[in-house]
Amino acid sequence: MLLARGLAWSGLLSAAWGLATNEALDFVQLEKRTNCPTDYTDYANVSHPPLSEGKYKLGYQRPPAECRTFVSQEVENKIEELKGVIEDPDLFRLFENSYPNTLDTTVKWRGKAKDSDEELTFVITGDIDAMWIRDSASQLHSYLPFLTNATAESDSLASLFRGLINLQARFLIEWPYCNAFQPPLESGLEPVNNSDASANTKVFPDPDNYTVFECKYELDSIASFLQLSADYYEKTNDSQFFSKYQWTDAVQTLMTVVGEQTYPTYNEDGSIVIAPYTFSAFTNRGTETLNNNAYGNPAAGGTGLVRSAFRPSDDACIYELFVPANMMLAANLERVIPIAKAIKAPQCLIDMMSKRAKLIRDGITKHAVTSEGYFAFEIDGFGSINAMDDTGVPSLLSAPYLGFLERDDKTYQTTRKRILSTSNPYFMKGPVISSISSPHIGPGWGWPMSTITQILTSDDDEEIKDCLRTLVSSTNGLGLIHESIFTFNEEAFTRPWFAWVNGLFGEAILDLYQRKPELLKTSFQ
Ligand SMILES: *[C@@H]1O[C@H](CO)[C@@H](O)[C@H](O)[C@H]1NC(C)=O
Ligand SMILES: *[C@@H]1O[C@H](CO)[C@@H](O)[C@H](O)[C@H]1NC(C)=O
Ligand SMILES: *[C@@H]1O[C@H](CO)[C@@H](O)[C@H](O)[C@H]1NC(C)=O
Ligand SMILES: *[C@@H]1O[C@H](CO)[C@@H](O)[C@H](O)[C@H]1NC(C)=O
Ligand SMILES: *[C@@H]1O[C@H](CO)[C@@H](O)[C@H](O)[C@H]1NC(C)=O
Predict the structure, then answer these.
(1) Is the pLDDT of residue 289 over 60?
(2) pLDDT (tens digit, 9 = 90+) per residue, 132-151?
(3) Which ranges of 402-517 does DSSP label H, i.e. alpha helix?
(4) Cα(316) to centroid of ligand 4, in Å?
(5) What distance in angstroms lies between residue 314's CA and the mean position of ligand 3's atoms?
(6) Residue nearest to atom 4 of ligand 3 (CA)
(7) Which atom of ligand 4 is nearest to the CA of 191?
(8) Does residue 209's CB lie within 6 angstroms of at least one atom of ligand 3?
(9) Ligand 5 first shell, C-beta below 6 A
(10) Which positions carry the signal peptide feature in this UniProt record (predicted)?
(11) What is the per-residue burial (b if ≥16 Cβ within 10 Å, else e) of 99-121?
(12) For residue 342, which atom of ligand 5 is closest to its CA?
């Protein structure tokens, strides 16, 4: 009987006991766990020696090798390789800390489904102890360059991806409207309380709290499952895997939700269309409940766009035809059609996917491009638009990264210029960071996620260098990327342990290594 790594961290101890009695587990090796941090949130909030040798003196924030939750030799080799490439010592330190953060700290449990050879992977966000569909798909996406084949080895990235696809499929078949989940039963881990949840939260359909951590309907969760699937398939050509478990069922369920969520608020005779999903809560934050008596603000039907109740920030949409998630969905429906064809999924499902992708693309062109030639962030289909961008990917800024369009697309370039200026009501400025921000934390807080997205979508060397300088100089000496930073004071920041954004930063560095390696020689001293 083998135990998962890194279990000494507080809150994970009970997991160790759970695992010890679970015969289905045969994956991860028992490791020496004596020097492991007891809580990585606290660990990440303090600088650890040896400090980097540049002026920012960034701590070394990787947990000791024996405590890491997953080890990929390919990722380790790449970090080692870049040591000789990134010349600025602080920038290299930020990369070596942040890129492996998901693998080092958040693969909370791996195992197999009860009485089955089906792999399962449970990946938490970091300091929020639950698995988000979007975050976990994005967290693994960061390591895609090292996924090269469908090897059955249980310690491979391929196995990690398969396990996540299987677990997401299981969750989404049961609760397709939900965004964040509890550990699977097989893990023996206790469900955790969602202490951030507002009092008296009422959701329809009403989820069970042993499976669901939070049930905010976010269209990008659906797109993220498709992205994760396409990521694995495009690298491995492993169609067999997709026909073996519940993948087709999951896609069918999600396509039903997508169809339901094109509903208009009113029928032609004026009666209210029965909403397939409603959400309300007692809260002092306008973004934590749905307006219009839990329905969300009205949206017109017939635009081709699909509604989303919440944004990727988990904040409520103002207008529910949320454009970035529609972009992400269209791009990823197109990417998974080859899987559906390879496994001979029902033709009507394949037709539905390609039709939906086209409807969304046409709908965005027709309804979401303003007369000034930029993309709206949200529309209601009645003529109202929300002209802004929010930091959370999918965002308008990330449209090329999502695979929806090319970087040099004219509408995108017009949009980009606008959202990276004070014409965007959520653009935050200050001496520490100037970036696209979010109502999620509030006024005055800049978000590194959009600074990173800026790098991933720019061809301009000076812009990229400015972004790198911002990132390397704004970690409060901790050497990890934070969720948000007060634009006038780097000591004020949120979420010391937010794995997704750290992996995204690593992606941006690897992207530069391919596209513009000379920029990795820049000094930020
Ligand atoms: C991180 O440390 C600072 C003090 O340096 C403290 O104010 C803050 O609450 C800590 N954050 C967390 C999440 O523990
Ligand atoms: C498949 O990937 C693994 C690493 O995950 C690697 O060790 C192995 O050599 C690869 N096999 C082939 C045939 O490329
Ligand atoms: C789930 O809900 C029940 C009943 O409201 C409550 O007693 C329990 O503590 C909740 N569990 C979690 C993990 O939130
Ligand atoms: C969750 O919170 C409820 C009450 O708020 C408490 O009764 C229950 O024990 C908690 N469950 C866990 C797993 O902490
Ligand atoms: C992918 O796998 C299928 C069989 O499942 C095979 O026919 C095809 O040649 C493979 N394609 C590549 C590029 O390896």
Answers:
(1) yes
(2) 999 999 999 999 999 999 99
(3) 410-419, 448-456, 461-472, 499-515
(4) 26
(5) 21
(6) 209
(7) 13
(8) yes
(9) 237, 239
(10) 1-18
(11) bbbbbbbbbbbbbbbeeeebbbb
(12) 5
The rounded distance, in Å, linking the Cα atoms of 279 and 293 is 9
Cite the DSSP H helix spans in 152-286.
Answer: 157-174, 219-236, 239-244, 247-260
Q: Could you tell me the two tokens for 453?
A: 């997205």
Contact between 223 and 324 (Cβ < 8 Å): no
Ligand 4 pocket: which of 10, 13, 192, 193 to mutate (most atoms within 8 A of CB)? 193
Nearest CA to ligand 3 atom 12: 193
Q: Please give the pLDDT value at position 30.
A: 35
Counting atoms of ligand 2 from 1, which one is nearest the CA of 150? 1
Ligand lying closest to the C-alpha of residue 183: 3
The encoded tokens of residue 497 equal 């342990």
Ligand 4 geometric centre to CA of 10 (Å): 17
- Residue type for position 93: R
Q: Is the pTM of this model over 0.90?
A: yes
Domains of the chain: 50-109+426-524 (no CATH), 118-425 (1.50.10.10)
CB 93 within 8 A of CB 52: yes
369: which DSSP letter? B
Strands 484-486 and 489-494: antiparallel
| CB of residue 298 inside a 6 A radius of ligand 3 | no
- Measured CA to CA, the distance from residue 402 to residue 82 in angstroms comes to 26
Nearest ligand for residue 483 CA: 1
What average pLDDT does range 351-357 have in this prediction?
98
Q: Using CA positions, which residue lies closest to atom 13 of ligand 2?
A: 149
Contact 370, 292 (CB under 8 A): no
99 within 8 A of 502, measured Cβ to Cβ = yes
| Atom number of ligand 4 nearest to Cα 190 | 13
Q: How far is the C-alpha of 313 from the C-alpha of 395, rounded, in Å?
A: 10
- Sequential DSSP letters for 103-165: HHHTEEEEEE-TTS--EEEEE--BSS-SEEHHHHHHHHHTTGGG--S----TTSHHHHHHHHH
